[in-house]
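Thread: Methylated-DNA--protein-cysteine methyltransferase, structure

OP (GT): Posting the sequence first so everyone is looking at the same thing. Length is 190 residues per the record. Can we get the structure tokens written out before standup tomorrow? I want them in the notebook alongside the other entries.
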Amino acid sequence: QVNSKQGGSPCKEKQVVLLSPLGRMEISGCEAGVHEIKLPKMSLLPSGAEPSVACEVCEGAEEMPEPLQQCTAWLRAYFCEPATTGTLPVPAFHHPLLQRDSFTRQVLWTLLKDVKFGEAVSYKQLADLAGNSRAARAVGGAMRSNPMPILIPCHRVIRSSGESGNYGGGQLMKEWLLAHEKLQKEKLAR
């Protein structure tokens, strides 16, 4: 249960399942915003990073609050028509971590705003962008606690050495997401 700010009453949480090229993604939220995006646990990934037309809500589509509609529309675009994500609204977030003022929140907002599709940034660069150049380790902690993977693109944060680094969805998923974005960006550039 997530408590809303007004009077601390629990919000009416809804869940939807989005079938994506990566598998079943569980998205929860309420009228106030998206609570969390849960990535599938993966051992096998789709071959190639081609956009897939198979990306749709398979459970919970009825009575979806607007933030969940926006979230699923954004994720569908991310996988199927990445060029359109920039024109879509980012849904409101209703997760405690993104409500209170903290360095983690600052890092996640900076990542959302400043690191664009097909780009990558090191933990240290992101710490600089978020206003604390010595906090690269704290950036790693912020990435681990990100409740909105893909939407807040923690997969775009890599090690200074160029290695991809850790990812909540696993190494393979992070590499697939980075390859997907690189391929789509190259297509757009042609």
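GT: Both are above now. Quick notes for whoever picks this up: Residues 1-7 have pLDDT under 50 and may be disordered. Strands lie at 14-20, 23-30, 33-38, 56-59, 121-122, 157-158.
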